[in-house]
Every structure is written in C-alpha cells, then in structure tokens.
Task: structure prediction
Amino acid sequence: MDKSRPGRPNDIAESGRHFKPYPSNGVCTRLGDKWTVQVLWRLSVAPGRRLRFSALKSEIDGITQRMLTLALRNLERDGLVVRHYFPEVPPRVEYELAEMGAGILSALEGLNFWIQDNLPRIEESRRAYDDAGP
Amino acid sequence: MDKSRPGRPNDIAESGRHFKPYPSNGVCTRLGDKWTVQVLWRLSVAPGRRLRFSALKSEIDGITQRMLTLALRNLERDGLVVRHYFPEVPPRVEYELAEMGAGILSALEGLNFWIQDNLPRIEESRRAYDDAGP
DNA sequence: CCGCATCCTTCTTGATACTG
DNA sequence: CAGTATCAAGAAGGATGCGG
Result:
C-alpha cells in the first residue's frame, strides 16, 4: 500500500492522455468538490448540451485550466460527460453532457430546492452559535 | 490574510468549546465529506432520533473520536443536530436529529436512489476508460 | 486552443496521548 | 464518557511555464 513516502503532496492525478484519477472516487465526494457540479450545470443549460473547453473556462468564474481539465476527465471517466476532439489547427474540443450526466442533475434537484429554502436558517443558526462564542 | 506561514497543515478546526469551523462551509462540501451523512443517517434510524456519542462511535465503522466530534460540532452549528448534555458522572451526551436534519435527509433521497440505480454503470464506465489507456 | 508538468499552499483526516 | 491537544500525513486546489 506504499506507506513509505512522507507527507508531501501527491501531485498524481494525471499523466498522458489517461490520467490517474483522484484517490477519492466516491460519487458523493465528487459532487462535494469545488467545481464538478458547476461544470455539469453549465453544460446542461448550453445549446445542444455542449460547450468548448474555453467556453466552460470563461463561464465558470475562478476556475483554473488545471482544475477544469481534472473535473472534465473525471466526469468523462465516469460516463457523465462525453469528450469530442476535433484535430484542427488550432485544436478544438467540445464537451457534451451525457444521459447519465443529465440524470444526476435531476437527482440533485430535490437537494437544490432544500438548500435554497433552508440556507437562511442554516446561516442564522451559524451566527447564533458563533455569537454564543468563546 | 496571513500568507506568512509555510505549507504545513493547519490543524485549525477546533479549540475550546467553540471551535473554529471548517474553512469550506458550503452545504454541499459538508455533505461530501467523509462522515457527515453517515452521522445523520444513524441518528435518523435510532429510536427517538437520538443516540449517545459512544453509540454513534461504535455504530459508524472506522470513525475516530476526533472526526465524530468535529462532524457533530458542525452539524450542531448548522442547526441540523441538537446536543443534549447531562452533567452526571460519568458524563452523558446525547445527539438528536433536528427538524432540518431530517429534512436534508429527505432531500437526499432522490440522489440516493439515482446512485443505487447508476453506480454499476459508472463503475463499468470507469473500467472501460482505465482499460483503454496506458 | 487545449492541456500537461512542476511546485507550492491549504484543507482534511488520522494516530495518539491526556483530562474533567 | 466525552471530549481536547498535538503531531503527522495525505489529498485538493492554485500559479506558472511549456508544448503539440
């Protein structure tokens, strides 16, 4: 299990066309990460459910090239997104929301509504807890 | 913004009764972490929606005292769980699932079903992707 | 344009010992 | 029993440079 290496960052996560996927591969973990749901959402509202890499990058505020690439690779690997590569010059790559990708977004609607309805109360609870403070 | 300290771990996250909450405080981030949903789930199926700290700890396989404490503190702060402290000897503490805690579990049902239905296909997609590559 | 490599920082989790 | 404190390690995210 390679317990040998000391505590530096891993910096695994890719190499060549077939990258090494994230160590944490649970579905919920992926949905909880910083960018994945945003990527799925942007694709779902795009015409033809497709967007170029650069379009995604400019629509998602604050994402870096590296993190967008990683998110897309993991989504592709899971079958939630399809990658279309056009070997032109300069190259063009489009990402398309797959059936399963649309499905998981629907499955998230209930949670989405709940959060919209309850976030104010959660934030109030946090304020109260913090004010009671140390 | 205190950029001074070099790249060692933070080890923030608590101190005294009022701990310092996780920096990432989005609801989805919390749900994506390793233990929170498990804790909510165990409480929801317990009689009276209540369990002692030690009961939770023994029911959730692999969780450490530290991580259980942190998960419960964050849930309490968000108003999803209520902490009942009994100053006996030895002390007893019970955690109760609050209304909002039950609500978020219901909101997660759709996602839960989706994952059950689609996990086999996701795993197959992962195998195919990994096999195709180097 | 798209994306990989490298380096670095921050966040999250774990192991262990100790206490009211 | 139910925590706190401390140390350590692993994983996620960001900045930047290079290349087909």
In short: Residues 80 and 104 of chain B are 8 Å apart (CA to CA). The longest strand of chain B covers residues 81-86. Residues 8-9, 11, 14-16, 52-54, 57, 65-66, 69, 85, 88-93 of chain B lie near DNA strand D (CB under 10 Å from a C1').
